[in-house]
Amino acid sequence: MTTPAARPSVSPGVSYRDPRAALAWLEKAFGFETTMVVEGPDGSIAHSEMRVGDGLIMVGSEWDAQHKSPASMGGINTQSIHVQLDEGIDAHCERARAAGAVITREPVDQFYGDRSYTAVDPEGHIWSFGETVKAMSHEEMTKAGGLAVRDRL
Amino acid sequence: MANDPEPVLTPAIFYRDPKAALPWLEAAFGLETSMLITDDDGKFAHGELSWRGAAISVGGELASEALLGPAEMKSPASIGGVGTQFIRLTVEGDIDAHCAHARAAGARITQAPKNEFYGARTYRALDLEGHVWTFTKDIEDVSIAEMEKASGLKIESRENHP
Asked: Which residue, among A41, A83, A116, A134, has the nearest Cα to B155 in the 3D structure?
């Protein structure tokens, strides 16, 4: 047997004070789908997984002193997640805003050919969303952005 | 050149010294730098690593009211080793050898490779700035019922298991 959508080679795990509330919010605001919930004997969430396209996000608790929500760290994030959408980024942003996301950067066309926005969720995690509106080569990006874009170190 | 199709999800990891992080992550974990963006002064702006067809962004620390509102991007090295996310990578070959290689390159192994009740062998490592990396390799198929019995946990899954 294999799982229908194979485990992706890279998956981020996100810590929340209240992972159960986070699952519901991420479904409503961003349209992610909860595919697995693992509960301990006391009903607390031990592990959970959400799918967005072929991507997988693990949602968990602050399970030890090394894993904390930004809500417990004064808004600090040590990682964030970028989600690439096929279409409809402006509508996606409005849906997120309506669900209570703080839009810190409104949808805007970037020099590298994407339209993107940035949102902060109720516990302070930073999420960015992008949609490719113009496919560009690294050379074109370098020209448009005034930055050197290289494939290698 | 045409760019590869973009993956749906790309985690971004923040470092005090992202330029030093890229070669360290290549040497220790076998990631490959696929993109490096620098400004006119040669200063690091953005990096991307690839791992088995997936991408990971590497960035510096940032506090910008205009871009992030009340949120801030910092390395675990700046906040006492705490992380707000971790990252899980699947390993194709020998996971024990992957761990030994990482250890030899200076990764701090916080959990040595061990077989988990859900049919995977995993290990956990801290990188040079304290980010948590979990490496995992599936070793056997385990049914949900077997996982529940072995762990005492209740598992609800919408994905197919035997």
From this structure: A41
Nearest chain B CA: its distance from A117 CA (Å): 10
| B140: closest CA of chain A, how far (Å) | 10
User: Which residue positions in chain B have pLDDT lower than 50?
Assistant: 1-3, 162
| pLDDT exceeds 80 at position A138 | no
Tell me what the pLDDT averaged over chain A comes to.
91
Between A123 and B38, name the one with better pLDDT.
Answer: A123
Nearest Cα to B80, choosing from A34, A30, A54, A74?
A74
Q: Is residue A100 classed as helix, strand or coil in its secondary structure?
A: coil
Nearest alpha carbon to residue A131 among A118, A116, A141: A116
Residues in A touching B36 (Cβ below 8 Å): 149-150, 152-153
The predicted model scores a pTM of 0.91
SS3 content of chain A, % helix, strand, coil (to 5): 20, 40, 40
- Closest CB to A78: pick one of B53, B57, B84: B84
